[in-house]
Amino acid sequence: MTVVVAIVHAGLAAAWVGGMAYSLFLVRPKVKRYFGPDDEGREALTTVIASGNRWKVVGLIATIALTGAVLLVLEPGHWGIHAVKAVLLLGASGIFWYVSWRHWPRRVFSTEAEQVVLRRQLVVLAGTMLGLTGAAFALGVAAGHL
């Protein structure tokens, strides 16, 4: 049972980290290069790509948290590492909430000048979220080897 829960937990965490890294370092620069100065086209494609993903990611985060809690019950060692992982997950989840329910609506209804600032802000937020989730993933791997 523990192995199955650990595989689900680590697999979903890896998918989240990998998806964010792919989006931030590959998709975003290629979309920018493809559309060049056509900000309207870039925003339209970005909206299509992002559409409908909010609740999928919420489900992903909830499942990562639930499987992490189950793992802690099944193998109650390394509480300190798990506490740090939980704080990192909460931080990343808070950023995701802000981006989904505050930043994105502002971006959709912003002027072109505001969009430039909001796009830069999104890169910082996404990078921070990636750093938090990546650190939590690395701690989980480390905990498995202690």
Q: Could you please describe the fold and organization of this structure?
A:
89% of the residues lie in helices and 0% in strands. It is mainly alpha-helical. It has one domain. The longest helix has 34 residues, at 2-35. The mean pLDDT is 92. The chain crosses the membrane at residues 6-27, 57-74, 80-101, 122-143.
Key words describing this protein structure:
89% helix; 5 helices; mainly alpha; 0% strand
Mean pLDDT: 92
Proportion of residues in helical segments: over 70%
| Beta-strand residue percentage | under 5%
- Shape estimate: elongated
Q: Number of helical runs?
A: 5
- The structural domain count equals 1
The largest pleated sheet is described as: none
Please trace the helix and strand order, writing H or E for each element. Answer: HHHHH
Classify the secondary structure makeup into a structural class. Answer: mainly alpha
Distance between the termini: 20 Å
Evaluate the radius of gyration.
17 Å
**Total beta-strand segments:** 0
Poorly predicted ranges: none
Keywords: Membrane, Transmembrane, Transmembrane helix
Transmembrane segments: 6-27, 57-74, 80-101, 122-143
Organism: Kribbella pittospori
Protein name: Copper resistance protein D domain-containing protein
